[in-house]
Every structure is written in structure tokens, then in C-alpha cells.
């Protein structure tokens, strides 16, 4: 016997197809960003498939949010590292010169 419900990946593909005209209407620079959002959704397809929600778009949106949260965390971590490096450099530059002969 076959499955009675389409797989989440099938549903996600159908959502992407329904939004194809929207994608085409986007500026060329935004089209890769649009594509990336669906890549994010596909990254969590296994978890979304287990949910088997009536509206697969909700799972896709949460998956996109999770990926973007991860990117934000990475950027915040990198920013903290850069700020610490700049502060350490500024401390070295503002330290009085060594007076030992």
C-alpha cells in the first residue's frame, strides 16, 4: 500500500512551484535569496516530515527561521571576536612605552 499523504519534500516542492511566478517577478539580485530560503527549508525536511502538519508552509517557515537564527548566532560570535581583537589592539596602542633601559 502507498502513502495517503504526500511526503513533506513533495509538499515543499509544490509550494516552491506555486511561488515560481513570484520568484520570477523578483529583482534578479533577490532570486538567489529566494532560492536560499527553500534550501533552508529542505535542510530540515526530515524534522518537518515527522510533524506531518496540515500546512507544510508553517514547517518551512520555522525551518527558515532556524537557519537564519543559526546565521545570526555565527555573525554575533564573529562580531564579538572582532570586537575583542580590536579592543586588545587598542589597549596595546594606548599602553605607555616601556621605560626599562
Automatic annotation (TrEMBL):
Q: Which UniProt keywords apply?
A: Coiled coil
Sorted alphabetically, which Pfam families does this protein's record hold?
Answer: DUF8156
- InterPro entries in UniProt: DUF8156
Q: Which residues form a coiled coil?
A: 65-92
Domain (DUF8156) spans 1-95
Record protein name field: DUF8156 domain-containing protein
The organism encoding this protein is Halorubrum salipaludis
Amino acid at each position: 500500500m502507498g502513502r495517503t499523504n504526500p511526503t513533506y519534500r513533495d509538499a515543499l516542492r509544490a509550494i516552491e512551484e506555486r511561488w515560481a511566478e513570484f520568484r520570477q517577478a523578483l529583482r534578479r539580485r533577490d532570486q538567489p535569496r529566494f532560492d536560499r530560503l527553500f534550501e533552508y527549508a529542505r535542510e530540515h525536511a526530515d524534522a518537518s516530515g515527522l510533524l506531518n502538519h496540515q500546512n507544510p508552509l508553517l514547517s518551512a517557515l520555522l525551518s527558515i527561521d532556524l537557519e537564519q537564527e543559526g546565521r545570526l548566532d555565527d555573525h554575533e560570535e564573529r562580531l564579538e571576536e572582532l570586537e575583542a581583537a580590536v579592543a586588545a589592539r587598542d589597549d596595546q596602542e594606548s599602553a605607555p612605552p616601556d621605560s626599562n633601559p
